[in-house]
């Protein structure tokens, strides 16, 4: 076991005392009678110097045999050294060798294909470690907000029986003598669960066999979804502005040094994020968004869906995230509550700086007659499932939720990797996942 991490010993209290640290060789410089190591662990880096004159022969020989990413434990005295990264240095007395290592195949300037091939090694990269830690913090604090606000965490199914929404983007899997699909969204299950728990959320993987290659689509992503009885779409908008701001604010506080390091790679400055937390977020209707785009000279008409280019242009008009509401019914899912003027009570949250959609949310159609008609109108009743010897509509169970004590309810889905991509100012979504699933790339 390991109890002391590098960040724990970079303290005045340890000055002049013997410390020991387990980790990996991050940098190494062999200077005839001294070997300088920079050692890394999950918490940070520290310099360690091995002086030929002050260690025994075996320790000296060991010190000269390491490769980058070799693993070791060093024991020695902690001193202050202005020239060392972080301002401290360990003067090594003893080395315990775990693995000298072999020449490491990555230097830090590899192309995308090489990185993909060595993904399992590349994930040790310092800036990617920062991204992983920021992801951790965003998730933890988001969850925290919902727990404090009285929501229940639930565990919906991932192997699903009906092609709930988009039949072209489904991954089909064998399910004994039958077939099933990998879940694209937990929403329908969450809708069933609100009758027991009223306010629920889940964090699960969602799978989408997206055909187009973009910088914002993965085939497997982590989906944070919420659903609440008695909530209207305006309530969900409020909840999401508050909870995301909370998550961002806490993450900034907790990950100062990670953001500092990341800044030189992606250009993300904490002060930009602070602005997003401090200012109120925008709410505009789809209709106004179309008008804005037309005024900017975009060839788009009422009824068209936005692509990433339109979303990018739109968000560049604002310095905060924008909730775009009331889309035409035709471009959105069948279960959204219709207002009567051809629009639905929904919203997409578009992240600023060109990032675009990170959330899709809506009030659900909770009136049985209207939902039933819509399922027929959209031809969804053709999806059948076998229950015993009977063939019934795959949406029968979903319609039941409107037959037995239906209530107004609303929810949303946030793509964790989309959120993280924006917060870290990453160009491509593949860098939000340790093992991204992208068409054409090797599956581990
Ligand atoms: P897009 O328009 O970008 O394809 P969508 O409207 O199909 O997204 P939704 O069905 O609304 O996505 O899913 C809810 C959220 O899940 C999205 O707002 C987004 O944050 C995330 N998401 C959807 N598809 C992907 C994907 N392929 N990779 C990563 N995140 C995704
Ligand atoms: Mg999509
Ligand atoms: Mg969309
Ligand atoms: Mg959407």
UniProtKB/TrEMBL annotation:
Domain named Aminoacyl-transfer RNA synthetases class-II family profile: residues: 132-434
GO molecular function, one term: asparagine-tRNA ligase activity
PROSITE patterns per record: AA_TRNA_LIGASE_II
Matches recorded under Pfam families: tRNA-synt_2, tRNA_anti-codon
Keyword terms: Aminoacyl-tRNA synthetase, ATP-binding, Ligase, Nucleotide-binding, Protein biosynthesis
EC numbers on record: 6.1.1.22
GO BP terms: asparaginyl-tRNA aminoacylation
Entry's family note: Belongs to the class-II aminoacyl-tRNA synthetase family.
Entry protein name: Asparagine--tRNA ligase
């Amino acid at each position: 076991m390991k109890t002391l991490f590098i960040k724990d010993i970079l303290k005045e209290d340890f000055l002049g005392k013997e410390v020991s640290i387990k980790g990996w060789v991050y940098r190494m410089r062999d200077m005839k009678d001294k070997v300088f190591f920079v050692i890394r662990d999950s918490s940070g880096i520290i310099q360690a110097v091995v002086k030929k004159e002050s260690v025994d022969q075996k320790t000296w020989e060991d010190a000269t045999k390491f490769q980058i990413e070799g693993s070791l434990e060093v024991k020695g005295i902690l001193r202050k050294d202005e020239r060392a990264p972080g301002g401290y240095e360990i003067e090594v007395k003893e080395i315990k060798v775990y693995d000298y290592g072999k020449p490491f195949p990555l230097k830090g300037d590899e192309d995308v294909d090489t990185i993909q091939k060595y993904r399992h090694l590349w994930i040790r990269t310092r800036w990617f470690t920062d991204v992983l830690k920021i992801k951790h913090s965003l998730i933890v604090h988001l969850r925290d907000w919902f727990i404090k606000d009285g929501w229940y965490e639930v565990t919906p199914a991932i192997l699903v029986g009906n092609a709930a929404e988009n039949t072209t983007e489904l991954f089909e899997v064998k399910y004994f003598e039958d077939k099933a699909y990998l879940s694209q969204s937990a929403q329908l299950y969450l809708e069933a669960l609100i009758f027991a728990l009223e306010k629920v959320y889940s964090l699960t993987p969602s799978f989408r066999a997206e055909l187009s290659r973009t910088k914002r689509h993965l085939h497997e992503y982590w989906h944070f979804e919420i659903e609440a009885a008695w909530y209207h779409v305006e309530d969900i908008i409020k909840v999401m502005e508050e909870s995301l701001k909370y998550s961002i604010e806490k993450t900034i506080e907790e990950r100062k040094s990670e953001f500092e390091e990341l800044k030189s790679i992606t250009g993300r400055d904490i002060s930009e994020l602070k602005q997003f937390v401090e200012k109120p977020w925008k709410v505009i209707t789809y209709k106004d968004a179309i008008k804005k785009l037309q005024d900017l000279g975009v060839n788009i008409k009422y009824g068209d869906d936005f692509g990433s280019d339109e979303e990018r242009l739109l968000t560049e008009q604002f310095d905060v995230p924008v909730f775009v509401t009331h889309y035409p019914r035709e471009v959105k899912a069948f279960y959204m509550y219709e207002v009567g003027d051809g629009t639905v009570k929904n919203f997409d949250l578009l992240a600023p700086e060109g990032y675009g959609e990170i959330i899709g949310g809506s009030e659900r159609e909770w009136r049985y007659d209207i939902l039933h008609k819509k399922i027929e109108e959209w031809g969804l009743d053709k999806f059948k499932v076998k229950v015993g010897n009977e063939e019934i509509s795959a949406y029968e169970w979903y319609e039941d939720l409107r037959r037995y004590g239906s209530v107004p309810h609303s929810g949303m889905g946030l793509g964790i990797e989309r959120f993280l991509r924006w917060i870290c100012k990453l160009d491509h979504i593949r860098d939000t996942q340790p093992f991204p699933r992208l068409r054409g790339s090797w599956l581990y």
